[in-house]
Every structure is written in C-alpha cells, then in structure tokens.
Amino acid sequence: MAKVYLKSIAIRGNGKVGNIPITNLEPVATCPGAKKEDGTFRKTCLDCYAIKTMKFRKNARKKWSNASAQDEIDELANLKTNKPVRLHGAGDFIDQEHLDGVSVSMEDKRGWYYTRSFHVGVTAKGTDNMQEFASIDEDEDVAIARAKGYNRLARVVEKKEWEDGGKKKLVVLNNENYVVCPEQLKTKASCESCGFCFNKPGKVGNVAFIKH
Fold first, then answer.
1. In this structure, are strands 176-180 and 22-24 parallel, antiparallel, or unpaired?
2. N or C: which end of the chain has fewer CB within 10 A?
3. How many whole angstroms from its chain centre is CA 44?
C-alpha cells in the first residue's frame, strides 16, 4: 500500500507495537466507556497516553480528530495485510454498530483490541480472528465485562505496587492472573515479536500493563 498513514490507520505501526498496522481515533470523543455514570473519568483514563499525545503532537491531533468510526471501518475493509492489526491505539468503539462494522471489515484479517465500551453495552463478537480484551479499572468491572462476553482482561498496575510485589512476570489481582506485558519488561522488542495478545489460542490469558 502506497500510503503510510490513512485517516485512521498507521500502516507501519509504532515503536511499541512494531511494524504492523494500528488504528487510531480521537480519544475521549470515541471513548464512551471512559467515564463513569456520574460523568467523572475512570482512574486509568485520567492518565491516558493518547490524550497526552493529542495535546503535544500536532500531527496526531490533526489525524485522529479527523478520523471517524466509518473511516476506520472502510479503511480496514480495504486493508490488505497478513500481519495482525492493533485496533485502537487511541480511541475506542463508540457503540455496538461500530464494533459490528469493524468485525465485518476484519473477517479476512486478524487483530486485537482493548476496550472499556463494555460499560455502555458493547458486546464482544467472539470471532476466532479477533482477540478481545476488556480494560478493567476496578474489581467489580470483571463481572460486567464477562457478562458482555469478554474472556480476556487487561489492567493497569501501579509501578510501586508491582515493584513492592517483587517485579514478577505474573501478577494476581482479585483471583485473576495477569501476565505483565513482555514488551514493557523488555523481554520482547514489540507486540509484533511477542504475540501474547493476538496469538494466544482459545481467547484466554489476561495482560497487565505497568503504569508509566
């Protein structure tokens, strides 16, 4: 594909995910699950890296703010790649229709995503080609996510909490096991070289990210 960056897709990814396509939409505006019912942000969303990127990087701000859910659906449908696709490095699913459309566009591809949109009723598709993670902020979120069909969980762990716990590669939170992101531990160079989040068979295996 000639273009390196479409409206919603960075064809060559970034330093963390590797040389794989990654979609980005405007954070907050496309993140209905980022806020609680009282209108306040969930604690992890208060420190969202995508919001910081929008603030300090003009090019990202311009591209992400001009990309719509339909742009993402259309561009994914036309994307030809044998590499996994990281959905929503920034942004999230605005509603069920958005996820349904992306799922159709991804039928001939594989990929993965982390979402908080289960808080607003967005249900996992359960397809074999997409690994679907519910991003958990509180222990009570687990039951909500599982009720919406999300078998895999992602959670941010405070750095001090992880260090005090012995800097282990596996952490246990509320009786759930989480593998600490190998890219963060520098045991893998990127998501592309790791594969835990998109290659794990059976839609099992939670992941923890150390807050930085």
1. unpaired
2. C
3. 13
